[in-house]
Every structure is written in C-alpha cells, then in structure tokens.
Amino acid sequence: MSYCRGSNFLKHVMYVDDIMIFCTGLKSNVRELLSIFHKYSEVSGQIGNNAKSRFLTGNMSVTRKNMISNLLGFNVGYVPFLYLDCPIFQGKLKVMHFRMVTDKIKNKLTTWKGNILSIMGMVQLVKSIIHRMLVYSFHVYFWPRRLLRLLDSWIKKFIWGGDVLTKKVCTISWSVMCHPWEEGGLNIKPTRLINEALILKLSWDLMAKDSQ
Fold it and tell me: Which residue, of 52, 58, 93, 162, has the greatest Cβ tally within 10 A?
C-alpha cells in the first residue's frame, strides 16, 4: 500500500464487533491473515462469518481477485459501500456517494405514520432517530449543501404533514421552527449546522490531539 511520506501505516480499524484489516494482496499475507483468524477462533471460540465478510482491492486483475477469494473464502466487495451508515468511497466527494444514506432516511420517514402522531411526537422521532443516523457520517464528511437542503425539506414536510412526498402550506417558517424552545421554536437543529459543528470538532481533534 502506498502512503504519504512521514505518515503512519494503518494496519487495522476495530469498531464493536467489526474489524477492517489493511494489507497488500500477496499470497503470503493472505495466508498469514488466515492463520491469525484460525488462532483467534481456537482461543476465543468465536468463528468469523465468511458470508458477511468482504475484501476490497485497488487496481487488480480478475485472476488475483479470484485467488484471494478462494484463499479467504470471502466475496469481493465494491466501493462505494456503507460502513456504520457512513459511505466509504474512493476519489473526490460526490452527491452520489451519499445517496445510500439519504434513500435510507427517506424510506424511514415514508414508512412512519405521521398522521397518527402529534407534532411533538414527529419532532422527537426526527431528533432521536434521523439525526442519530446522520451523526457518524457528519463526523467524517462535509456533506454537499444540496443534499442537506433536501434532508431538511423532507424533515419539514414530515413534521408539518406526516408525509415527505406531499408539500403542505406551512404556517410558520422553517427558520423559526429551528429556534430554541425559549424563543418559540421546536429546537430542531438544521442538518447544515449539525454537520458544520461536527466537522469543526474533527478539525479541532486533528489539531489538538496527538493520536492516530
């Protein structure tokens, strides 16, 4: 794997019960990984699920991909893909990379029966579920403004009418609804402000903390 001069070599990333391992696609490396997996299974009693595991490659021939797939017993994965609701892709950030996340949110809003909920019930669903679905991705990427405006429009339609596909005349502007409780609003944070705040936190961590 090629890295910038002076950068730390990233070997693995672990989160809860998931692990991502980075290495070159040599036969010796693949066999060593298999040996580590087998030793871990013998010690812990836990067995990896090959059906749920994937490996991803850069520019590699089909022959070598098949060789790695046969050795590991994993299927070939492709980018972009979602990891913890965060899109993983290669190259410049584009709107298409976040479509998987936005489609998932739209489906969630569409399936909820907003017409049998109070406004406060719908506001609570947005804050506790929709915003939480976005937080991890917002920690990593500065989203395109067009998508953030689209998300806010779906949330606004859901709260006012219970349906993201139907536009309803609003008696109060969206900016007022986003005001705090004490100022007469519903204390809903615009997605743009949430994204900007979390990216600023990431920037501060990169500057202030000496960790990988």
Answer: 162
